[in-house]
Amino acid sequence: MRLALAEVKPRPRRVAENLCALEGVVSQVPTADLVAFPELFLTGYSLGDSLHRLALRQGSKELSTLAEIARRQDKWILAGAPFESPARKGEIWNAAILVGPTGEVQVSGKRYLPNFGPFEEGLQFTPADSAQVLKTPFGRIGALICYEVFFPEVARKLALQGAELLLAISASPVTSRSLFAKLIPARAIENATGFAYVNRVGVEDSMVFDGGSTFCDPRGEPLDPAVHPLPEGQRILEYELPLEEYSRYRPSRPVLRDISLLA
Predict the structure, then answer these.
(1) What gap in Å lies between CA 8 and CA 58, rounded to an integer?
(2) What is the pLDDT of residues 18-27, one digit of tens each?
């Protein structure tokens, strides 16, 4: 599997422009199977009163456009956006949206919402009820969103549900970069699973986002990517992931088996 992490910045509240930029990035990595974009990339992070107006919904033209991009580019695309809860109309998730080249749409909502310092997600979004494993031809993906990396229970639940790759999309400021750098290899080791992390760059409402995107193998070791530079400090990190080899780590280090026996 070839995974591309798009360390890019959105234009706040400009969904159409961000979709156009997304397609431009995807076209830069023709060999990638899956291209992942940061948390809330389609709208920007600070939405205020625009949240409900900008949120994607089943059947919305923005969601259709995203699916059409996946079809045109023949790629799987994972991108962050606000999304109306399919269970409770009017409630909005901070979501990871996965689209495939034949029209598939899968959505996983954020369960742990930060509500401290500059973050007010708990006032804007409704937490999703449970973690969702997203299915692709390359393997099952456990999607996490930013702050959820701090909760080992989220990654563990996804791994126990059969996730073969953990992938976190993020909009984390530069002040948290060193924390994620420590947590990501730990989550990979705990779950004997590769862990990918894509974080945005740029400045929005005085918050500075500084990337730090990476991939760690099941032993917590970082993998060297092919780097595709983009304008304004943006870049794409492309990885060749031997997921079939990573599956052999679990029997030799059977953490998931042992924790399931105790559950």
Answers:
(1) 26
(2) 999 999 999 9
